[in-house]
Amino acid sequence: MSNRTVVVDHPPHIRAVICFALEKAGMHVAAAEHGADALKQFADRPTDLIVLDIGMPEIDGLEVCRRLRKQSDVPILFLTARSDEIDRVLGLELGGDDYVTKPFSPRELVARVNAILKRAKGGPATAANGEGVLERGSLRLDPERFEVKYSGVPVQLTALEFSILRMLAARPGIVFSRDRIMDSAYAGNVHVSDRTIDSHIRNIRAKFAAVGCASIIDTVHGVGFRLGDVKAAG
C-alpha cells in the first residue's frame, strides 16, 4: 500500500509541483490549501506524512504543528523561505522532522520524504544499530513497538528523535560527532545542517526533562554527543 501524504501549501502552483513529484514517486497524495483544511484532513483519514508550509495565512504551519503534536507524532516535513532561519529552527523545536527551503528541487523533497518514511516505518535509518530492546539504566527503547520509556513513563519521540537516541543508547559512553549522527539519521544523499541536529537534540532533552531525566544526552564540546546519565534520581 502506498503512503498517504498530505501537502499543505497556499500557492496552488507549488502544491501542484509537490503533489506531482510525490505521486510520480508512487505515493498517494492529498492537497490542502491552508492550515484548517490540513487539520480536518488529518482528523478524517489516516496520514503517513505531512508536507507543511510554514508561511500560510490565518493558521500558519507552526500553529498546525503545535496542534498536531498534541495528538499525534505523524512525521512533518516543513517548507520554509530561505531567509526564515528562525522559523525553521522553531519548526524543528515544535516537533518537525525536517525542512526543505524554497525554492527547492522536487527530487530533494522526494528524497527527504522517503528518508522520513523509512525512519517512521523502521527502515534502515531507524534500525542501523541492530535490533532488539535496549535497556540502559532507567531508559528502555523498544524499536519494534516504537516505544521509549524512562522509569516506566512513556516518552513520545518522533521517528528521527528515536533514531538519534537509539544510536547513542546502543553504544553508551561513545561520543558521536554531528556528522556521524547526520549520516545515521538521514539518507546519505540528503544534506542537513548542524543546526538541524542541535534542534532535535534539544527536543529530546526537553521531553526527557519533563519526565525527570535532566541529562539524557551529554554534549562533549568540540566533539559531539553521547548518552547521558539515565539512572533514576534518588
Short structural description:
With about 230 residues, the protein is α/β, with parallel strands linked by helices. It has helices at about 10-25, 35-45, 60-70, 85-95, 105-120, 160-170, 180-185, 195-210, and strands at about 5-10, 30, 50-55, 75-80, 100, 135, 140, 145-150, 155, 215-220, 225.
- Which stretches are low in confidence, meaning pLDDT under 50 for 5 or more residues running? 123-130
Give the distance, in angstroms, between the N- and C-terminal Cα atoms: 48 Å
Determine the structural class based on helices, strands and strand pairing. alpha/beta
Tell me the overall shape: globular
Strand line-up of the largest beta sheet: 2-1-3-4-5
Number-wise, the strands total 11
The total of helices stands at 8
What does this structure look like?
The protein is of the alpha/beta class and 234 residues long. The chain is built from eight helices and eleven strands.
Map the helices and strands:
Layout: E1 4-8, H1 12-24, E2 28-32, H2 35-44, E3 49-53, H3 61-69, E4 76-81, H4 85-93, E5 98-102, H5 106-120, E6 134-136, E7 139-142, E8 147-150, E9 153-154, H6 159-170, H7 178-185, H8 194-209, E10 217-220, E11 224-227
Parallel strand pairs: 1-2, 1-3, 3-4, 4-5
Antiparallel strand pairs: 6-7, 7-8, 8-9, 10-11
Features:
five-stranded parallel beta sheet, four-stranded antiparallel beta sheet, 11 strands, 20% strand, alpha/beta, 234 residues
